[in-house]
Amino acid sequence: MTITAILGTSSVTKIVFALGMLMVIGDFAATLFAIAYRRFIYKKRRASYDPSYTPPCSIVVPCKGIPKNFGDNLRGFLQFDYPDYEVIYVTESAADAAVPEIEKILSEDKRAKFTVAGLSTRCAQKNHNMLAALREARSDSEVFVFADSDIKPGVRWLREIVLPLQSGKISVTTGFRWLLSAKGTIGELCHAYVNIFIYTCFCAASYLGGVGLWGGTMAVRRKDYVELGVEKAWSRAAVDDMSLSTLVLKNRRKAVVVADCITTTDDLLPTVGATIAWFERQIMYLKSYQRVLWVFPALPMALLAGWLILLLPYAAFAPYVTAEPTTFMEQGGGASLIFILGHTAVAMLYPALGKMPFFGRFLLFQPVLRLAQMVSYFKTWTTRTITWAGIKYKLDFKGDVREIDRGSA
User: Fold this and answer.
1) Residue 145 forms beta bridges with which residues?
2) Which of 257, 290, 323 finishes a domain?
3) Residue 210's pLDDT is what?
4) Which domain range does residue 344 map to?
5) 56 and 142 in contact (C-beta within 8 Å)?
6) CA–centroid distance for 116 within its chain
7) pLDDT reading at 2 higher than 80
8) In Å, how far are 12, 172, 321 from 55, measured between CA atoms?
9) What pTM did the predictor assign?
10) Does one domain contain both 197 and 306?
11) Do 210 and 81 lie in a common domain?
12) Checking DSSP bridges between strand 85-91 and strand 57-62, what pairing results, if any?
């Protein structure tokens, strides 16, 4: 059987397949780079840093509710091998369910602080919380560090996230998270898949001169925080990391993904619907703060991937329902199958990045996981509202928050 026969008789399916394979090659290259970055490239970069660089730090940990392993996570921020730092926990309300656990920790360690931010009126509640916490920060802190309460960092996490900031060329550092499926449900696997996709993109973007930041682990020098105007930007934005990314790019600064600050967690979203909603929010941030990337290359990639995945079931049933005699291959089934197998081959590289529980099931569900990703993207074309933690933020064209609807939140 020739390659022409596999790709079908239609010039359309051949063109779509050719473009789709460019996507596969791009994903393959990004994944290989992420592996090389974590294992070799960052290690070489890190060797050039002075390990004695340990400036005073203020760590801000916004809290809401009680995520999995909450108490252990919070105590993890007070167990660093680091000489001089403080931790500021912050909630929007004194009645938040997280407060009793925070109060226990305050009695255990004098480096811990707690503040109540109150309700936001013009920006994301998380942004509002972090800004309130920074007003309580020590005046001698040279680095501001931000972290989510659903991770438990290792003892060297603070040293590693701060270390690259000794370079005047670097303004912001970021870590990431690695999701370990606990039950192997399709919802958990879908969440793990989109998380890995974002991680590989971040590694390539930061190294090639762009920027990729994850709000769950970020550090910025106080000096750069002021010069970039982060406080002003956060006070009207719907997100912390993407709005900071925009400032870094606009001011031609540099951000670095710290390969040694990839934290693992088994606190995953349980359903495909929840993952679609979560990834939709991530893409809405792209739409709001980096619109060019949201339209191109994201739009053609989403169209091509969706087309090629849905082409498989269509080609399988077409021979039985069309009036003219046809075959699976003639309807483009071969092109679709090769595209899907290509992305499965990319996914087979993922264990080189981190542990992959239920990996066989993960590979089996690849087409569904990829299609869910496409659904998230297309949903962003119908709205300018971002829903986060039960709060709806209506944004204007520039990405500034214009209206907040808390509903029953």
Assistant:
1) 59, 219
2) 290
3) 67
4) 3-28+294-405
5) yes
6) 27
7) no
8) 59, 15, 70
9) 0.95
10) no
11) yes
12) parallel
